[in-house]
TrEMBL record:
Name this polypeptide is given: Mannitol dehydrogenase family protein
Domain Mannitol dehydrogenase N-terminal per the UniProt entry, residue ranges: 31-282
Pfam family, one: Mannitol_dh
PANTHER family: MANNITOL DEHYDROGENASE 2-RELATED, MANNITOL DEHYDROGENASE DSF1-RELATED
GO molecular function, one term: oxidoreductase activity
Residue ranges annotated for the Mannitol dehydrogenase C-terminal domain, each copy included: 291-479
E.C. number(s) listed in UniProt: 1.1.1.-
Organism: Janthinobacterium rivuli
Keywords annotated in UniProt: Oxidoreductase
Amino acid sequence: MSAIELKQANLANLPGNVTVPAYARETLVPSIVHIGVGGFFRAHQAVYLDDLLALPGQEHAQWGYCGVGLLAHDAAMRDAMRAQDGMYTVVERSAAGDTARIIGCIGDYLYAPDEPQAVLEKLADPGTRIVALTITEGGYYVNQGTGEFDAQHPDIVHELAHPESPRCSFGYLAAALALRRERGLAPFTIMSCDNLQNNGDVTRKMLLAFVALRDGDLARWLASDGSFPNSMVDRITPATTDEHRALVRDSFGIIDAWPVVCEPFRQWVIEDEFPQGRPAWELVGAQMTHDVLPYEKMKLRLLNASHQALCYIGMQLGYTFAHEAMEDPGIRALVRRMMDDEVTPLLDEVEGIDLARYKDTLIERFSNPAVRDQLARIGTEGSARIPKFVLPSVREALAKGGSIELLAFTVACWFRYLEGHDEAGREMPLNDPYAARLRALALQGGADAAALLSLRELFGELSDTAAFTQAVGQSLASLYGLGARAALEQIVA
């Protein structure tokens, strides 16, 4: 049987082992605008809404997504989504096998570089009640050293000079909010779904700082009437590859230009602050709460920091995928000991969570061979991820007199990775907004960590903290002097 192109008209002809939307897609109301329609959003938030719309009584609940792409490479996603009537395949992969479903809750997709006015009008539309964001950890313009807004970032410099021609998410949000205020509309709820501790609070602080530079009255209005709920999101989702497209075609008979593959596990904890209304996410497994922080802290300090620990040393040792790295006894010991010995003592009890079991589950998830999560994906934007996932534990451990040896080794592994080549001389990809500067400092410093540790916008006061700089320096010297394998064995011995 030949594979079938994914389109609305072909849903009834898809194989029986593929789940298709059980609701009338033509009745969708795109009242949620999502900026950053990447793999994670499509495997996580969109799946929750798709589940909700399939419930009896929810199919006419006036919810649906309008996706927005801001970056040049989002043109490919636009083309795929429009050709497929906004639909795509989600494949969950585990040792038990693969399952496939079609997600149908995205009713429209706008590509901002080609249609900026359409994006602004959609954001300013009275029917838009929530604007959600997955714009990566680096998309909030935080100076990592001070925790304040980075007004010197090139994106922000452009937005302030050309407020009528926005390019980045903050520029579009500010311009659309100004239109809403002029038209007598309340601000939409702004919901970050990125891996930031207190992501709603961070979004509020950074966006208000930006808006205040544009229009003080608009900033005061947004501060008074806006809502920025915190949330914690979790699902391991590797980047889509041609291998995934072939899997969807050969195993499920679907021609899909941009499927998404993920693990079965998913979690979403959301602060219930939505003055314009929200979907009943709690009906499909999301946890609505008034205190996200304990869940965020647990997840970012354990899962996300452990991802940083395994990916940089893993790439230096020649591994490509997370499960391969986790099969290495040294890397497995590094991850487990960092979680148990250095991070867990910093965590509070989390209601409903057995912390020991949670860590066991993380090891199982990292080791899932079916997901084939790329280490290069996990290591993307280290300049944003190391300060957000690793350094908070360093600071807290130093304040409490705890150990930072393995956390510092993780930072040193990132420094060594920035040089650009693994143990065998193979090039390691560097995807970071500060790539050129980081690479230059890594080459300048070599085995001496001082050059990279001088980046106060990343390390803040830790640049002058002897316990930290010495620990990182010793580990980096070992990585260069002994090699990655011997340095790893030494640190976990």
